[in-house]
Design brief:
This protein is α+β, with helices and mostly antiparallel strands and 121 residues long. It contains four helices and six strands, in the order αββββαββαα. It is globular, with a radius of gyration of 14 Å.
């Protein structure tokens, strides 16, 4: 999966908003005003940083050499994934969904309802 495909996937998530607060070399995706993905197209290999439950973050780092502690982020809660072709596309998508779900779960009920009008929890 290349960064363009990944960017398309991330932008299609409900409520996803793209910003470039750090300049054109970094794409930041937010939901409910909170960051869930940071794409770095200028890096080689390209990479994406994702929020992650701490024990899962450590497990993924142990399992994949291309998963590292979040670069310039809280290393307990963020992983940076190198898009070097060594991780299956489905696994990368699952990491993105996990990040998105963690951020959405931390939003208020009213914020979740704005993202998904069917949300009642």
């Amino acid at each position: 999966m290349d960064l363009r495909e990944l960017s398309d996937f991330v932008s299609q998530m409900s409520g996803s908003v793209e910003e470039q607060p750090f300049g054109p070399e970094v794409d930041v995706y937010k939901v409910g005003g909170r960051i869930f993905a940071v794409l770095s197209p200028e890096e080689h290999p390209e990479r994406i940083s994702l929020k992650c439950e701490p024990s899962l973050a450590r497990e993924l780092r142990d399992r994949y050499q291309a998963v590292q502690a979040g670069y310039h982020l809280n290393k307990q809660h963020w992983n940076t994934v190198l898009l070097d072709g060594t991780i299956d596309d489905g696994e990368i998508r699952a990491m993105v969904v996990h990040s998105y779900d963690r951020v959405v779960a931390g939003l208020s009920r009213s914020q979740r309802a704005q993202i998904d009008p069917g949300e009642t929890a």
